[in-house]
Amino acid sequence: MSDRKPNDFYPTPVSIVTEIIERYINPYITPQVWEPCVGDERVADALKSAGCAVVGTDITRGQDFFGYTTALASSIVTNPPFKHIRPFIDHAFDIGVEHMILVCPERLWACKKGREQFQRHPPRFWANMDWREDYLGKGGAPDRALAVAVWDKTDLRPCEYEIWSRR
Question: Which of 146, 134, 75 is nearest to 105 (CA)?
Fold first, then answer.
């Protein structure tokens, strides 16, 4: 029996959304943004507050990201289901996404499949967080170490690594 929530729905902690907005929305994200895992809309609402026009879709609305053959915008900002994150990254670039910011597990690249995917789709930035969030909502000590990946297919410089501290 799995303890996972249906559709792997774990809302993005507000602290992480705030960091993404403050650090990366400009210049890496175009004014039109697709949030394909819109869930409770907290990422979409933050993007709108930052001046972005947001196209929000979600599997719970019958809008499965993997069913799209063309990107709804050239930029994506989202927290995808981690159990599908590798196919999510590949699919995003297959359908024409050029700029993307994803909340990721901190060890996304720490395996053979991860290294291979990193070589296919190297991010422009990779940022680990030096704090943890109670991402799974279990109460008690935070249980999830997260990272943020930023892709900009128009900027082919090597990936830069950062460690974020909460502001």
Answer: 146
